[in-house]
Design goal:
Blueprint lengths: L1 E7 L11 E8 L2 H11 L4 E4 L14 E5 L4 E6 L3 E7 L4 H11 L23 E2 L2 E2 L4 E8 L5 E5 H4 L16 E11 L9 H9 L7 H15 L13
Parallel strand pairs: 2-4, 3-4
Antiparallel strand pairs: 1-2, 5-6, 6-11, 7-8, 9-10, 9-11
Helix pairs in contact: 4-5
The chain binds flavin-adenine dinucleotide.
């Protein structure tokens, strides 16, 4: 779906900043994305997932591309691990819950981080003692100008603290299409973060599983940060 403007971006960023765009387009399927690339590859794209890590300071002159690609699938498994691929427009927290429900461990500490799966590698999201890089396998990204889909391994992504190649040399060049994580079927939980241990102790949980950790993280986050849907904010930074 394409809309021409001016269109207010206020509902689409968690700061609720009322800047405008001259044109917005929603991408629901890969084919939509490839068609957009074929026809609009010479224009600057301003990709928006959940808008939880952007600070709009002026009207957006490029084409605003809302990422709505959906889907979470297990693409491979062995006795100990599963490789889970998530479309970049899937909500990150939905992916965490999907994995916790199935007993796949590794991202439970990252529960309730707002935003989409596709934005997660951009700043190597992290919280409560865990970063995305620990479970990251690879991602697919569309070269916006060239039109090729390229695979990026963990090494290619050059993850650092809230950093990756997508915030450096590759900034603005790619549309991340999907991410693949390698998760454990026999998870060992990470409760190294002090506040997490405290909540688990208060709940009388001596041997927590991944669901206990996710629940504790959710409780801590809900007690600390306002819900961006109610009070505009961009978390802590
Ligand atoms: C209340 C709150 C709590 C938070 N807590 C944490 C936390 O604990 N840890 C943490 O690491 N972060 C945290 N954040 C920051 C934020 O949630 C993450 O950075 C998240 O990954 C952003 O996802 P998004 O979909 O909202 O990205 P957006 O804000 O939509 O986009 C962020 C940037 O990525 C680009 N982008 C988005 N999707 C794509 C794509 N598919 N391809 C290419 N480029 C893309 C955008 O153009 C933009 O430059 C928090 C934010 C809020 C509001």
């Amino acid at each position: 779906m394409s809309t021409t403007g001016p269109i207010s971006l206020k509902p689409f960023n968690t700061f609720h900043i009322d800047e405008s765009a001259r044109e917005c387009i929603e991408i629901h399927r890969r084919e939509d994305l490839l068609q957009l690339q074929a026809t609009r590859n010479q224009e600057p794209w301003y990709i928006l997932g959940g808008g939880s890590n952007v600070l709009l300071t002026q009207a957006v002159h490029g084409l605003v591309v809302f990422n709505r690609l959906q889907g979470i699938t297990c693409i491979r498994e062995d006795e100990t691990h599963v490789w889970i691929q998530a479309a970049s427009g899937a909500i990150w927290h939905d992916l965490v819950l999907w994995c916790v429900e199935r007993g796949y461990g590794g991202i439970e500490n990252l529960a309730l981080i707002p935003g989409t799966c596709g934005a997660a590698p951009i700043q190597n999201i992290g919280a409560y003692g865990v970063e995305l890089t620990a479970v990251f396998h690879e991602l697919e990204a569309l070269d916006i100008q060239g039109g090729n889909i390229r695979l990026f391994s963990r090494e290619d992504c050059r993850f650092g603290y809230r950093d990756s190649v997508f915030k450096q040399e590759a900034k603005g060049l790619y549309f991340i299409v999907s991410i693949t994580l390698c998760l454990s079927k026999t998870p060992r939980v990470n409760t190294s973060y002090g506040g997490l241990q405290q909540v688990l102790q208060e709940r009388g949980i001596a041997h927590p599983g991944i669901r206990d950790v996710a629940d504790a993280v959710i409780a801590i986050r809900q007690s600390k940060l306002p819900d961006p849907a109610v009070t505009g904010n961009a978390g802590s930074f």
